[in-house]
Each structure stands twice: as C-alpha cells, then as structure tokens.
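Possible race condition, two jobs.
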Amino acid sequence: MPKPLTVAVVAAAALLTRRAMRRRIRASPLWPWPALEEPVSGRPRSRALRLTVTSRETLAEGVVQLRLEGHDLPRWEPGAHLDLVLPSGLVRQYSLCGDPEDRSSYTVATRLVADGRGGSREVHERIGEGMELEVRGPRNRFPLVEASSYVFVAGGIGITPVLPMLRALPDGVEWRLLYCGRDRASMPFLEEVGKLRGGDRVTVVEGRPDLDAVLADVPEGAAVYCCGPEGLMAAVEERFPRVHLERFAPRASGGGGAFEVELRRSGRTLTVAGDSTVLAAVRAELPNTAYSCEQGFCGTCQQRVLEGEVDHRDELLTDAERADSMLICVSRASRGDRLVLDM
C-alpha cells in the first residue's frame, strides 16, 4: 500500500499540473498549437447593462417603442444606438430616440420586418413590460456635426435617430426635414415631428419622394443626414456624396471574387467563394465561432488579422481597429488577396 505521504505528494502534483494545463489552454484554446496574442473574437465592445422594460407602446402600424429603465445610465448624444441582446441571444442595434438628459431610461423603437432574419419579430412577439434585457452601449457612429445649416431625410423608422438631433439643434440655425413613408399610418412620431419648433420646415411625403424637387435648393455647406431604406439612402448619397448615413442593413457582403483564408491557430486554409462570407467558411470548419448580427454592426465576430489587406464593409470598427482586425461576417480580402487570421 502506498504511504500516506506519497499519496499526498502525488495528489498535490496532479492538482498543480491540472491547474497549469487549465491556464495553458485558456492562453491558447487550440493548444498544443503555439499561443499568439490574445484574440479579440466575441468580446463585448462595451459594458453590458441589465435594464427593465417598463413601457411597450405601439407607435404606428408595425412599430413598437420600448422604454428601458435603470440607474445612472451612461450618457449619450443624438445619433447614438444601443445593442439589445434578445432572449434568444440575437444581438440587434436600435437608435436611441428619447431624451439624452434622462439618465434613468433609454427609449428605442423598432419596425417589424416580416421577411427579416428574426430580430424584429422577436422584439414584437416576445418582449413585454417587466422583462429584463441585456444592453450594450450606447455607441455613436452617426454624430451630429456642427454646421451652418442642416438637411435631414428620414424614411419610416429612420426618423428615430433624427428626432434627438432635431431637438438638439441650437436656436436660430437653419434646418429642414423631409420625412417620407409608405403611408401616414406606418410613420412613427408624426405628431411629435409636427410639434417641433419651426415645424413649417418639415415636409411629409407618403410614398416615393421627388428628391430633386424637395432638395433642389440645399444651402452650400449644409450638413445632410439620411436614415431609412437602402434605396432612399442611395438616392440621397448620389445627390450629396458627403451625406451622413445611418444604415439598418449592411452593404452587400458577397462579391469580389473568391480568396483564401488561413486560420493560423488551427493550421487550416479555407476558400471563401465570391457569393459567400468569411464567417460562413470559418463556421464550416469551426462551428463554435462566435457571431450574432451578420451585418457588421455588433462586433461579436471580430477577429485579428495577421496578414493580408482587408476590404472593410462593416459599420462599426474605428480606423485604428481596422488596422489589425476585421468583422468576418461582412468584410473580405481586398482584390482577391489572401488573409491570415488569428484563429
């Protein structure tokens, strides 16, 4: 029979070895391949909050507004948005449309997209008063810049980031708003828009607007903002190339030809087809790869790029972040180049 001291020494050595192995695996999940710098995949981009839904209101046909309450919430400025982590785990982005001075609540609104990918349907069908939701942000990629005058174009639910901007404009500044939608019944915040100071500067159009007529005399140097359906934003951008845009859907992520992606940590090389995405190719080999929005907004699929030039198509990363990382759900290799990822 082993002596008690021998048993104790062996047990202690086994415990220390087990702890060392755990630390080693945390440092490099694909050990025994060599550990590189710590990857950025799946990192929340800001501190998560747990907020309570205290109000759920129907604003227009297919549009609901949620009030999310907490305590001493982070400040935000017009144009900012939140990441909502839905009960299913999906992450979706919604523009803040309440009062930036209110530190006790955030207000968002969302339109039901019947043929979408399920996020808006989940909000409409599963989220009610009293529920607690995880929220990340606020973040702002659509800030209100200082200008001598402003022109705002909003299509449907695209009015949500524009409303706080209109409220925040300094007295005396020139501005105008074109607000269009399928019909008045589907357009949220119509009554509030009509009560804005200088409300005679608002043009409401049901159906497709005549942009050439409505925007014929935009002052030189005016800041032009647009949020709404992709067709509307493309038409405004064609007329005003320096327009500030807020997208609810990504630019096309496919196209541009096939290219190779090497996953350095796992020692695999993949081919990404011209009509596919890096994320799809990676998940075929590594099915546990973290992702959520698949639109280049949430940052869940962010990966470090070790080699290669990236065609960035996301709506999130800063210039500094794009120097060494990418969102693999939408971005691709430039000119069919080869990418090496820290995966």
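Job #2 (started ~2 s after job #1):
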Amino acid sequence: MDVSFLGGPHPQRGVGVVAPFDFALDRELWRWVPDDVSLHLTRTPFVPVEVGLDLARLVSEHETLGDAVRALNAVAPEVVAYACASGSFVGGIAGERAMREAMTRAGALPSLTTSGALLAALGELGARRIALVTPYTVSVTQSLEEYLAEAGVTVTDRAFMGLTRHIWKVPYRDVATMARRAARGAADALFISCTNLPTYDVIPQLEAELRIPVISANQVTMWAALRQLGTRAVGPYQRLIDPAARRGPVLPEEQEGWA
C-alpha cells in the first residue's frame, strides 16, 4: 500500500527534559504536551542514595547537568527543562539560578527548572500564601519551605509522607488525602511537590473540591517549558493552564435571577 500521499509526519518543536535517574513518570509529562511538540528526555546517572537532601545535591551538580544538556543538543530542542523539584530548590534561589546558567552554557539555549517554574506559576496565579504537599522527609520539605520563603511565599500548612523511595507508586487517593489535610488554612493555592509523584488526573478534582488553584511539580515544569515556546500546555480544567478555569464553577446564587 502506497502511503506517500500522507506527506510524512507533521513538523515538531522540541523540549529537552533532564530528569533524575529515578524518574518514572515520562507518560505524565506527555499528557500536558500538544501534538506539535516532542519531548526529548535524558537521565542523570544513577547514584545509590535514598531520596533526601544528599540525593538532591548529587542530581543537580553542574557537571552532571552540562553532560545531560550536551546529550540533548543532537536533537536541537528549543528549550531545556530540568524536571526535578528537590534538585532545583535544595540550593535556594541562587542555586536554582546557577543551575539554569550552567544548562544554558552547555546548550546555548533557554533553560528552566521545576522550582523556577513553580515561582513563575505562583506569580501567574497571584499566589503568595500556599498550602504544601510533599512525599518527602521532614528535612527535604523544610528545604522547600526555605526556598519559598526566600522568594517571599508563605506556607500556610503542609502535609508530607516521609518517603525515601518508590514515590511514583503513591496512588491518587493518598495525594488527595494529603491535599485536604494541607489546605485547611487560608491559602491562595496548593502546590504538590516532586516530579516523581503522579498528579495529572487529581488536579481537576482537587481544584473543584478545595476551590483554589492546585499546581504540581510536573505541571508547572511543562507549563513553563511550553510557554517558552509560545504555546500552551493542555489539560482538563486546570487553572494554571486555562485562564477561563480560574473563575471557578458558577454557583447557583451567582446566576442571574437567583433569589
């Protein structure tokens, strides 16, 4: 059968993604990506260390980042994203900035990190007080809070699981339970940290239930990378992605003629 009339695949724009070796959610990232964009993923080398501050520092070393970005240069992405929350907040604001600069030097192209994307997303939503959900230990969670405080963001409450491995196996049920626990205070938004924690399908449910924007590490990473390309991430009823969704559902008393 001659299929030459189809003309070949449509042109694609590329986003390079540097992910830690333990990253297990490639498919989740793809769910935010429109059809005309391809993700090109590479991994940092394996190190036999449990999830914690030491691992965060190891997977964010500049030499490691440079090697990963140079490996991506062959496919010429338009932007490179470092998809790891703890690896990009462990060094504070200055450390995150230095990571981006190291990546840009290695690839001569725009670079971003999950934690930098988080701050950009909070700015987009006008959120200065946030509830926090993490699968981390207390020390890693505190490091994230310190990063946010340095950026002028207040954490109203938090819920964390204390995990040091197998984070990708956490079910949506547990993520939702932690979110409800953390969102008891007056927060402008809720952030679910860790790029190894599944969140895509739970975001709309939590936004409808909690009545505040809910953002996650993988979501903000893809949102920021695609915005760099001048395009939008895709996702059902996610306030960060769809400005129309930020108005929230219309309640009966808000409808015209309600009495």
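Confidence is low (pLDDT under 50) at residues 250-259.
Logs attached separately.
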